[in-house]
Amino acid sequence: MLELRHIYKSFGEKIVFTNLNLDFPEGKFTAVMGPSGCGKTTLINLILGILTPEHGEIVGFGGRKVAAVFQEDRLLEHKSGLENVLFVLRDEAKGRDVAEKLLERAELAQDAHKKAKEYSGGMRRRLALCRALVTDFDLLILDEPFKGMDAALKPRIMEMVKEKCAGKTVLLITHDRDEADFFDGDVVDISNLPMR
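-> structure tokens emitted (196 positions)
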């Protein structure tokens, strides 16, 4: 079990969490929902160690191999789509086949040799997902990963993520209840949690 216990986090006078307690079960999807500004991205940054809580403890995340898709795509703009995916692998030669299959599944195969800066917004989201999914992660964190995707393509990409993450621990940040329900996991609305 991954746990956040009695987390207090503020930015100056803005208090985000006063007594946040959350559990994330192993090997399942957990969708975290809530309105903009309620602390979803802060939660991710705390888990990743980018931010530190003033009080409380985060248990069970240390030593895990973590992959993430952030709200910003964070691509290598002058590298090709394939090079972006291969960049996160220790052994590019071994992972090339897996990377190419992922790009094909994400319907990016014919654009695999284009530079990332030439990709549309939806293509960039798919590429960022492929880059995360190609790694051997223990924990996958997805922050609004399907935002801006073509409506006809989105269900196929969600199915790809669901298949690739079967049995893995995944934390999905979303505003979309249909996305949360699709992955058959726990759904947590952090704006409704008691924090005092």
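The CA atoms of residues 34 and 160 lie 25 Å apart.
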